[in-house]
Design a protein that fits this description.
By secondary structure, the protein is an alpha/beta fold. The protein has helices spanning about 1-20, 30-35, 55-70, 145-170, and strands at about 40-45, 70-75, 80-85, 90-95, 105-120, 120-135.
Amino acid sequence: MQSYSRISQFIILSIIISMLSACGYKPSSKYAREVLGKRISTDVVISAQDPENTVVIKDAVDTALVEVFHTSLTTYDFADTHLVITLNPPTYTPIQYNADGFVIAYRATITLGITRESKNIKKHYSAQGTYDFAVSPNAVLTDQERFDAIKFGSAKAISSFIAQVSAEGSKIK
């Protein structure tokens, strides 16, 4: 009987010790925050081909920074890190055709060039996102479809950038 109580005590003690020591897991946002810092400023270079989408990209970047990194957006003068985002020309590739051979779905590929400036370090990243969408057969892409494709593709590209920065942060010890 006494051996069972010692075994149960050992098991309980082992569980408590493992809970206190934890596994060392950190979410990727913590790693990214180690690279970017707590205060970030952003600029988006206006695209000559898509000037109206510059605001969408800036909003998507700022939202991702606040939601994922839990950082503060600030002006350039007070920032730990400054990000300059450039929208490369989007590409639209047909991915589905109907029985008559007309395109009924496209894949928009959005590539963002992101330059990170912090602590005398200037590093360039390329982040890519895609967005698939349907269109009417034999139709021309509307401005709204292009706008949505750039918006959602940019959000995915920003997620790609976050993953790149998080990977860098995980290497810092």
